[in-house]
């Protein structure tokens, strides 16, 4: 069954928390950050659902002055990966954000994610040394969008 992409809200708090725990065992956000991303203004937040279950989530910070949408988090549950859900969440965020640039940070070792971002037109735009708590470097990736 194909995933449906819809706006997420604070009602999805428990499901998003669970997904973040599974997808980001090393970089799990504190509860308050998850509540914030589900409720603050100027954030595009979308969920992917299959049979009514939340299986994917994305949140992008909209920075209008810089015309940038920052992908703060994107994750898909392991058993639903490799079926285009991550790509669908990124493309729909792009469409809803309507900014000139999409930007994100990714662990340099995260080959699946980097492969996906490249395939959607993101390019490497810098390196942030020791960005993650365990000392790993972050790759900065950017896409110029038509809007
Ligand atoms: C990165 C992530 C969101 C991608 O989600 P996804 O739904 O698997 O993405 P897609 O299916 O659209 O594309 C996945 C790509 O990964 C690869 N892939 C294929 N099967 C896969 C699988 N079982 N598991 C992971 N990746 C797979 C493929 O190369 C695919 O590219 P292709 O279209 O050229 O074949 C997901 O792997 C994830 O949640 N990872 C853990 C959290 C994370 O690292 N998030 C990004 C932080 S910057």
What is the CA-based Rg, rounded?
A: 14 Å
From N to C, what is the helix and strand string? EHHEEEHEHEE
Structural class: alpha+beta
CATH topology heading? Aminopeptidase
- The amount of beta strand, in percent, is 35-45%
What does this structure look like?
With 147 residues, this protein is α+β, with helices and mostly antiparallel strands. The protein has a single domain (4-144), classed as 3-Layer(aba) Sandwich (Aminopeptidase), CATH 3.40.630. It is 29% helix and 35% strand. It is built from 4 helices and 7 strands. It has helices spanning 13-23, 31-39, 85-97, 111-119, and strands spanning 4-7, 43-50, 53-63, 68-76, 101-107, 123-128, 138-144. The chain has a 7-stranded mixed beta sheet, with helices on both faces. A hairpin with a 2-residue loop joins strand 2 and strand 3 (53-63). The protein is globular and about 40 Å long. It starts with a strand and ends with a strand. Bound molecules: coenzyme A. Coenzyme A (COA) binds at residues 23, 74-76, 81-87, 104, 106, 110, 112-113, 115-116, 119.
Could you name the key traits of this structure?
single chain, alpha+beta, Aminopeptidase, seven-stranded mixed beta sheet, 7 strands
Brief synopsis:
This protein has four helices and seven strands. The chain has 147 residues and is α+β, with helices and mostly antiparallel strands.
Map the helices and strands.
Layout: E1 4-7, H1 13-23, H2 31-39, E2 43-50, E3 53-63, E4 68-76, H3 85-97, E5 101-107, H4 111-119, E6 123-128, E7 138-144
Parallel strand pairs: 4-5
Antiparallel strand pairs: 1-2, 2-3, 3-4, 5-7, 6-7
The chain binds coenzyme A (COA).
